[in-house]
Write a structure and sequence with these properties.
Purple Acid Phosphatase, chain A, domain 2, ten-stranded mixed beta sheet, alpha/beta, 23% helix
């Protein structure tokens, strides 16, 4: 009877223990009025994992934008195209967040929630995602005006609420393979506060990928899709990770061709060349397996 009781207790523990969670992270997404199918071509790459992306531009109609410089938007009717990829977190902290006015971020957050997507960054703060019994905190910070003075405190608070912290940063500037100084400082802060996954986007360019003890870092994801003719950077990557409480079990990089100029995003035509580039700009050695690579 004692043996049966022990076996039953172990079986119950195995059922109640949190299992690993599969995530994918993509860079900048701007769909404008939508309806162009700019994300359909990568659905096979992300199948079975939960997505996290940066929503470049507020959720708004074109007519709601302020006038002046370049303004970006994502119409509410375009959001199903994002949720179709199982995106559950949309970052709204970036240099275009206010293109629909001061209340744009809050309205964007409300629209995302209506489509089953948690907003991260700006007024909503961190998104708390529940997957396989694991609580994952996703933060989003805009570094356009430098590293926020309270970044460490915000990341520490988010980490205290979750089993895994995913920290994302939006950094502006000319496309470059080399991380900008403000991004380096923000990444070090995230690493020191216990982030397991750290990813950057915003300059539209690729950056190296690395593992550093408990953390995986992607210094530049590049673009996913842009409805406007305002970027020419087509080479991009998706970061796929399997996480457990406090650690990354597996990390993969998958090269894609961003959906630009009304063309849909698609797997890269030359993944090997992207892997060569990533290693040349400082990534750790990649374990290549066809069109994807572990690191």
């Amino acid at each position: 009877m004692a043996a049966i009781a022990v076996a039953g207790a172990l079986a119950f523990a195995s059922l109640s223990d949190p299992g690993p969670a599969d995530l994918w992270l993509g860079g900048d997404v701007n769909l404008g009025d939508g309806g162009r199918g700019q994300l359909q071509g990568i659905s096979g790459i992300v199948q079975g994992a939960t997505g996290i992306v940066n929503l470049e531009g507020p959720v708004a109609e074109h007519t709601q934008l302020k006038t002046g410089r370049l303004r970006l938007w994502n119409a509410p009717k375009a959001l199903p195209e994002i949720s179709a990829l199982n995106v559950k977190v949309g970052g709204i902290a970036n240099n275009h967040a206010g293109d629909a006015g001061i209340w744009g971020p809050e309205r964007s957050a409300a629209s995302l929630r209506e489509h089953g997507i948690l907003p991260a960054g700006g007024p909503p703060g961190p998104a708390l995602l529940q997957l396989n019994g694991i609580t994952i905190a996703v933060t989003a910070h805009d570094l356009t005006n430098g590293v926020p003075a309270n970044l460490a405190e915000e990341l520490t608070s988010a980490r205290s609420q979750a089993d895994v912290l995913v920290a994302t940063f939006h950094v502006t500037g000319p496309p470059s393979y080399l991380p900008r100084p403000e991004l380096r400082l923000a990444v070090e802060t995230a690493y020191n506060t216990g982030a397991s996954v750290i990813a950057a986007h915003g300059t539209h360019a690729l950056g190296p990928v690395e593992r550093r003890q408990h953390a995986v870092i992607a210094w530049g994801l590049g673009n996913m899709a842009f409805a406007c003719d305002c970027t020419k950077e087509q080479d991009a990557i998706l970061l796929r990770v399997r996480v457990a409480p406090g650690k990354v079990i597996k990390a993969e990089v998958v090269p894609i061709q961003a959906g630009l100029n009304k063309r849909p995003a698609a797997p890269s035509h030359d993944a090997a060349a992207i892997f060569d580039l990533l290693e040349a700009i400082g990534s750790r050695k990649l374990d290549r397996k066809g069109n994807e690579a572990e690191f």
